[in-house]
Amino acid sequence: MKKTRTDALVIGAGVGGLSVAARLVEKGMNVIVTEMLPFVGGRFSSREYEGFQVTTGTIMVPFGERSAFQEAFDLVNAPLNVRETKGAFRYRLSHGEFEVPREGGGLLPLLEFAMHDNAQARNLLHQIHLAMTSKPLTGEISFRDWLSLYSDNIELQNLYQGFCGAFIGTSSNEVPAGSGALVLNAMVLKKLSRPIMSYQTRVRE
Which residue in 30, 83, 150, 205 is a FRET match for 161, CA 20 to 30 A apart? Predict the structure, then answer.
């Protein structure tokens, strides 16, 4: 068996593993990335199937100058090959549906729709704004638990759980509070993108 000396071993060639590997490589380290699947990208990729391009999990991700994905690609001088979203989003809860305005600015109406309490919705929006600007969220708390500090509204939790499952490909209790705030910020700025199949190959190379 051939032996290879390496400084770091990254297990998993999903977006997290490849982003970590990119940062280590940029620091001059020799890195090996292992993956059990026959393709890289994990839940942030897409495959061709019967003439269609099908996502492997995540539908959309936050994208912009502060995006961790953009930073990782920039570190290894690889182009980030994604498609920016253009359409609107529609959320369905037990009491009805809400379509986010195509021109943006729909976060407050969405919170009001979910919470049935305009005052609580405005307070939560204010806390989210602080978390995105002057008081960044840190620590081990999940974004779901952070939301619970300001509201016990079950529909609000259902809304965010659906959002995490559809767009991020994970459960709301797995999303760190700081990352959750960045996702909401991306919603406000309409900086969301869809992954495409060649995306991860550029970082791997």
Answer: 83
pLDDT in tens, 68-104: 778 888 888 887 777 666 666 777 888 888 887 766 6
Which domains does the chain carry?
8-85+193-204 (3.50.50.60), 90-189 (3.90.660.50)
Euclidean distance between CA atoms 164 and 172, whole angstroms: 6
In the 8-state DSSP scheme, what is residue 125? H
Reported in sequence order, the residue ranges of the chain that DSSP labels E, i.e. its strands, are 8-11, 31-34, 46-49, 52-55, 61-62, 82-84, 90-93, 96-99, 192-195
* CB within 8 Å of 53: residues ≥ 6 apart: 46, 47, 196, 197
Question: In which residue ranges of the chain is pLDDT below 70?
Answer: 1, 58-66, 83-88, 102-106, 136, 138-139, 166-169, 182-205
Tokens of 68: 């961790």
The predicted model scores a pTM of: 0.55
For the chain, percent helix, then strand, then coil, each to nearest 5? 40, 20, 40
pLDDT at 10: 95
